[in-house]
Batch of 4 targets.
Target 1
Amino acid sequence: MVSPARAHFQRVTAAEVAASAAPGKPMGCSEYDLMLLKLAEDNRRLKGIQSMETRADIKRKLLPDYVPWVDGVLAAGNGAQDDVLMVVMLWRIDAGEYAGALDIAEYAIRHQLTMPDRFARTAPTVIAEELAEAAKRARDGKAAFDLEQLQRAVDLTADQDMPDEVRAKLYKELGLLLEPANPPAALAQLTRAKQLHDKVGVVKDIERIQKTIKNDSAGQPGGS
């Protein structure tokens, strides 16, 4: 954990450098280079661990060290390419810090930042796919997932190019989360998911929700 004085210095430095850097060009300063070195060291530590659950726990412990840098960039950044920021975005998803990840995603999409070279996916694709996978894991484990954050991911990536299969997965998870409170909205999301990718696996879900809507309609005054 960085000291309060060090955290303040990092936050101020990040804000100053990010504000003066050219949009789309790599961030350049000694403090950024130090953050890259720390990121490389932390990545080497993570690569030696096979358990994804353990990796997520370690990322959760490491992430506070990056908060001052991230806060500074988000507060004053002008859109310079920042690989530290983009990896932290992904780590926050892995650690379950979805709101923080989406704060970075909003900045990254607005400024068209890219993932570091070792990543094959675009930033919007990463956001859509990783949030959908996180929601699916929660659903498979019968755990709650934050509907607001998943809806935010859908809204942020709505106009971004990505594989149809990825967007379909995101719409599927949103639809299933919406089902208990709003079956018609859930049906619309699942139907769109199937249009995008017919093997996304929503046929039975659609049939179930259609039946629910029909039964609810029949139970209303004047219903058949």
Target 2
Amino acid sequence: MTKSLADLGLTTGTWAIDPVHSTVGFAVRHLMVSKVRGRFTDFSGALEIAEDGTATAHAEIRVDSVTTDNPQRDAHLRTADFFSAEQFPLATFTATGFRPQGDDFEVDGEFSLRGVTAPVTLKVEFLGVNPGMGNGPVAGFEAQTVVSRRDFGLDIDMPLPDGGAVIGDKITLTLEIEAGLQA
């Protein structure tokens, strides 16, 4: 039997992302032999569960909040070579559909970055609902998707003299989300 979000304990209402207990991160190949990992420190979003059990979700990420723990690289990521943070300050995600997969989900949606919107599918592991610590229930999710940076106009190649490139095309986006039911 396929479970709905409500069957998993996600009751009707707005489940807002708790940015203090959540992470929005990414990883990309560097020199084709290792990975650079980073994260965004300023983001928000919510999952809305309607009375009829249908759901919507949306999120915003301030791309100028990127950190890879390397200030020089972070400054470069904010430029027109990458995020164009001044011109396009937000990356957004809006869910277009939820497909239960046992206790987990695939969430289809539209991801926008640098003024380009493309479809993505998040593979979401539902971690459960906890009564919380006095402020109401909290739910946990881990999600991942892989996107092509070129699909979003991030087409800087930075080729290496002997072949290959400084950065890979495939970006793994990883979300570790704790969301609280709003009163």
Target 3
Amino acid sequence: MNTTARLPGFDALQTRDHAAALASAGGDAALAAELLQTLLAGLPAEIEDLRACLAESDWPGLAEYAHQIRGATRYCGVPALDAAMDALERAARLGDPLRCAAGFDDVAAQAQRLRETCD
């Protein structure tokens, strides 16, 4: 049984907030769709890069990389993934290996949830 403390509620958050995505794209639906597709296309490689930082216990690198990805998650209107990425970034800034591992699992789960929602 995993006893790692996790921040609850990622699954309770919206996978996709169309209104927020549209607002971020200045009302341009085509741009909002393009931004989301770009995020989705890059997620598998980004998840692997995050996994590599975690495996190397590179907490500063993990925090910075999660922060960079959050730029895209904020613009794309994907609240659950954005919140999970934020939690991972904060855990990495603390250098807490258990929270980082749990945070990575949450990010991977929310990325998968987003992919399934957008298929």
Target 4
Amino acid sequence: MREIDKRTTVRRRVFLRGAATAPAAAAAAAAGLTIGPDAAWAADLRHIKPATMTVLARAARDIFPHDRLADRYYIAAVVPYDDMAAGNAQLRTLLEEGAAQLDAEAKKRFGRDYIRVAAEEQRVEILKSVEKSAFFQKLRGDLVVSLYNQKEVWAKFGYEGSSHEHGGYIQRGFNDIDWLPET
């Protein structure tokens, strides 16, 4: 029976290995990885406004909520948008306007910016109001890959990674159904 690590801490070596592919995520770690209006990690980005990036990170957590995942995984999932926006003005505009739309909807409903809405249920209500927009569809679609393709996240969910190089799932865990409750 596999044991799933439910802690949200990460060892230095694991973080550094993952951060090699995302330099901005490494800077985020040094700055204290939190999603908030004054997040220091967002100030180091060059192509998208810091306020937009914090909104994107908060929206990422609200779209795919996992209590066992630390904010840093959501931050690492949206930080690549900064580099992608460098050569893509259309993407930059989509993200900036989408975040502004979330803020406007939050102000209209709750009198504050999206990032400052404390209740998750209220933020989800805001997201539902824009779920048909191109912005929301782009963010949700990209997050499926950028969030769940982080190897450090796999262990949090009990996924052991590819089994092809180990003979496939028949040889490695095909009958391992410890997640199924016994009846």
